[in-house]
Amino acid sequence: MLADGIHFTRFVLMIRSFFALELSPDALKVVETAQMHLAQFEGVYRPIGIEQLHLTLAFLGENDEETTAKLGDLAAGLEFPQLALRIQGWVPLPKPDVPRVLAVNIVDESGELTRFQRRLQDRVFQLAAHKETRPFVPHITFARLKKEVPASAKVVKKGLAAMPSLRSEVWTPGEFLHLASDLSGDSARYEVLRRYPGTGEVPGAS
Fold first, then answer.
1. For the whole model, what pTM was predicted?
2. Which one of 47, 164, 183, 186 is most buried, by most CB atoms within 10 A?
3. Closest by CA position to 181, among listed 11, 19, 12
4. Distance between CA 148 and CA 199 in Å, rounded?
5. How many Å apart are CA 92 and CA 46, to the nearest integer?
6. Which residues of the chain have pLDDT under 70?
C-alpha cells in the first residue's frame, strides 16, 4: 500500500500456450483443397488461416511467464522421435450430425506420435493450468461452421456430401514447437516461444 491510501496492483502477464507440430508443404496443399471446396458454399464455413494450421500435441491453458518457461523446460527434457505422418480423410466434429468443426485425420505411420504425445502430456500435466484428460486424437482443424448457420442446414449437408477425398504424402516433422496464442483480435495469432529439434531416431531402435 502506498501513501494516501493508494494501492499498487502487480500486473501478471498470462500466456496461453500449447505444444504442436507444423505441417509439410504437401499437407498444407491438401488442406487448401478442402477449404477451396467449402468456398463454393459461401457463408457456411469459416476456413482456418493457412498460417494457423497445426497439429496440437498438448494444450497448456493460460500460465504466467515463469510457469510458461518452466513448461518449456520440461518439454526440452524429452527426446523427440522420428515420426511418419500423413493426412487420410476428414472428420466432422463433435459428431457427424453436428458438423460444427471440420478436421483432417492424421495417420501415424511410425506408431510413435501417440506414444510421444503421452510422454509430453505426462511431463507437463501437474504444472500446466489446463489438465487434459480426453484421449489424444491426432487431427488438424481446417474450418468452423459460422455461428449463424444451423448445423442441420441443407447447404451444410450438401457441401459435406461432396467433400473430396483427402490424402497427403508422408512427412517427417523435424521438430515440435511451443507456441503462444493471442486471441484478442479477429483471428488467433501465434508466436513461437521455443523449438525442439528431433533426434531423427525412433526410441528403442538399434
1. 0.86
2. 47
3. 19
4. 47
5. 14
6. 1-11, 200-206
